[in-house]
Amino acid sequence: MLIHCAAPSSIVDIWISFSYFATTAYFVKQRTTTMAVEIEHSGNAVQVLLNLPDSGNAFSDALVAGLDRALDEIETASCATVVFQGAGKGFCGGLDLSDLESQTDASLLDRLIRIEMILQRIANLPQRTVALVHRFAYGAGADLAVACRHRIAAPGTRFAFPGVRFGILLGTGRLARLVGEAQARTMLMQVAPLAAEDALRIGMIDDLVSQQDWDGLIARLAAEPAPYDTVTAHHLAARLRSNEEDRDLAALVRSAARPGLRDRVARYAAAAKKGPRQPA
């Protein structure tokens, strides 16, 4: 089955300065490629590749639309596992701010709400979800990893949740439910990114696996049969869901709807340009 995703995008995220790339071929594949999202079926696994490497796979409107359309298909797919990866320099650099000059409070709020809805859909997928993270996962990118049930990082990966610095509560509830309220508060207060080794220690990620071993990992996942049928998987996912979605969305809207959202983001961006590099 082929899944069609978002239209091409050429925007460049001002925040990303790292370099690396890891996409590989796996057996028995069906692939649809676009500039924003690439979906590949391989045995009992579906791989979702964030495919805007020039912008660090930041959450632009194109990436949001691509993920939405991909999830429409994945939610009813008969696969056992969904694997999320990022092409190029790293996993995901957060909110795309390259077009900030043309944005308004309302347009930024709309994108943030759409991102939160995508994260909720990922968190509630009936399949096993795995985030394979390399180099960086910042802001909404770190939130995407947290939304997956299993999180594996390459050594040297860094995570950051800087949205609170411009008044945004995106994904904070899911983070607290994963690592505990006290640990989440500490992470949200710190400016320096969190090293993957520390993320493993506090339980934010499950394992450290070198990228050169990801091929074999995905092959093993693709070979594993689904433990139950699609209908049972949906029933189980509904029964086990946290039922915190409305509170998470309300917290985001309350924080982002405060007047001056665009100006707060712009001030943060300007400070990040002048001072030590900070994640978006």
What this model shows, in words?
By secondary structure, this protein is an alpha/beta fold. Helices cover 40% and strands 15% of the residues. It has ten helices and ten strands. The strands form two sheets. It has a seven-stranded mixed beta sheet, sandwiched between helices. Strands 6-8-9 form a three-stranded mixed beta sheet. The protein is globular.
N-to-C SSE string, H for helix and E for strand: EEEHEHEEHEEHHEHEHHHH
SS elements, strand count: 10
Cα shape: globular
Structural classification: alpha/beta
Mean pLDDT, all residues: 86
Helix content: 40-55%
Q: End-to-end distance, in Å?
A: 35 Å
Uncertain segments: 1-28
Tally of helical runs: 10
Q: What share of residues are in beta strands?
A: 15-25%
Radius of gyration: 18 Å
Biggest β-sheet strands, sense, barrel: 7 strands, mixed
Write the layout of secondary structure elements.
Elements: E1 29-32, E2 37-42, E3 45-50, H1 61-74, E4 81-86, H2 105-123, E5 128-133, E6 136-138, H3 140-147, E7 150-153, E8 158-160, H4 172-179, H5 181-189, E9 194-195, H6 196-202, E10 207-208, H7 214-223, H8 230-240, H9 245-256, H10 261-274
Parallel strand pairs: 3-4, 4-5, 5-7, 6-8, 7-10
Antiparallel strand pairs: 1-2, 2-3, 8-9
